[in-house]
Amino acid sequence: MTASRRTKLILSAGLIPVVFLLAASAGGMAWFHFANPAESCVSCHEMSSMHSAWTSSAHRTLHCRNCHGGSLTLDVHALQAHLNRVVQHFRRSPDKPIRLSEKQVVAMQESCRACHPQSFADWQSSRHAATYANIFLDAKHNQTEQMAPDCLRCHGMFFEGHIEELVKPLATKGPWNLIDPAKASQPVIPCLACHQVHSATAGFASASLYVRREHESIADDKLPVIPMVQGARKVDVSPDPRQRLCVQCHSANAFRQTGTSDDRTPTGVHEGLSCLDCHSSHTNSAKASCATCHPAFSNCGINVELMDTSFRSAGSKHNIHTMACGDCHNGQRPKAGSHKATP
């Protein structure tokens, strides 16, 4: 046997286990990609609680790979995440749950968009699509109030760090800069801030609050109804679970006084209504709200949409959330048709 032939045989023999390992790996990846999640993903005990919640959710007919990416994906970030879970299995305590990083939460939005394009487009048109630059580089706000860790409770729930690691300087005198410029266009209120896709629900992913401190999502119907007061008077608050989510960020001061801080609890003629009675869920628009409940003309004979309220003009002194009959009528009930709309 010649030396060259001997060399070829040795090389061929050495390649056999390599080819076998590659084939086995490819087969294993293909199996994990197409297999029933109960036999693949959930074979890792860290996933059992998430799988249990998923089985009763609106997304239970979807495969894990639809949202998280499969083992055959060409998405480098997804593959990195899968490999990281294996590493975490051996490095972390077995009882410590696996969390999505902020990068993964933002990437997940593309999966949301794929199945819910209209809801995603509505969200993009709303103020809830604000970016880190919109919130933390707002000179007017920053000059009025110094940024603090609690800002991240509503703006940047998934940020993996402290406020000192996000923006500088922490003072009312700028100029302000994001420490990581790449975060400028990143949303501070992504889909998972208000939706838990594994939650049990009959419809779309249920509304839920992601609690930054606990790293957990709490379903809206598990949140408490916040008792509110106007002066010393107890205010009638809507029992709508979705409103319980809204008031976690659009909240009043420590004394629960309506209209304080960023509170929008309806009082006056609209007391007892839910936020979602007027505002569309993803656009937050209230443009069609009056027509939903009111006839073309009010009891006064005036088109309610033309009245001097903040519905008609943001500069009106009559805030639609707090206006009462007496604000315009001084306690006197006008005769039908005796008043005209404010020009």
Strand content: 5-15%
Query: What's the helical proportion of residues?
Result: 25-40%
What coarse outline follows from CA principal-axis ratios?
globular
**First-residue to last-residue Cα separation:** 105 Å
How is the largest sheet built, in terms of strand order?
1-2
Determine the number of helices (DSSP H or I, runs of at least 4 residues).
12
How would you classify the helix and strand content by structural class?
mainly alpha
Radius of gyration: 27 Å
Average pLDDT metric:
82
Could you give the count of β-strands? 6
Q: Please trace the helix and strand order, writing H or E for each element.
A: HHHHHHHHEEEEEEHHHH
* Low-pLDDT stretches: 18-28
For the sheet with most strands, the description reads: 2 strands, antiparallel
Care to describe what's here?
The chain has 343 residues and is mainly alpha-helical. Among the domains are: 131-188, no CATH class; 225-286, no CATH class; 287-343, no CATH class. 34% of the residues lie in helices and 5% in strands. It has twelve helices and six strands. A hairpin with a 2-residue loop joins strand 5 (228-230) and strand 6 (233-235). Helix 5 crosses helix 6 (117-124). The N and C termini lie far apart (105 Å). The model is unreliable at 18-28 (pLDDT under 50).
Brief descriptors of the model:
single chain; 343 residues; mainly alpha; two-stranded antiparallel ribbon; 12 helices; 6 strands; globular
Summarize the structure.
This protein has helices at 3-34, 48-54, 64-68, 76-91, 102-115, 117-124, 132-136, 139-144, 241-249, 275-278, 289-293, 325-329, and strands at 167-168, 177-178, 208-211, 216-219, 228-230, 233-235. By secondary structure, it is mainly alpha-helical.
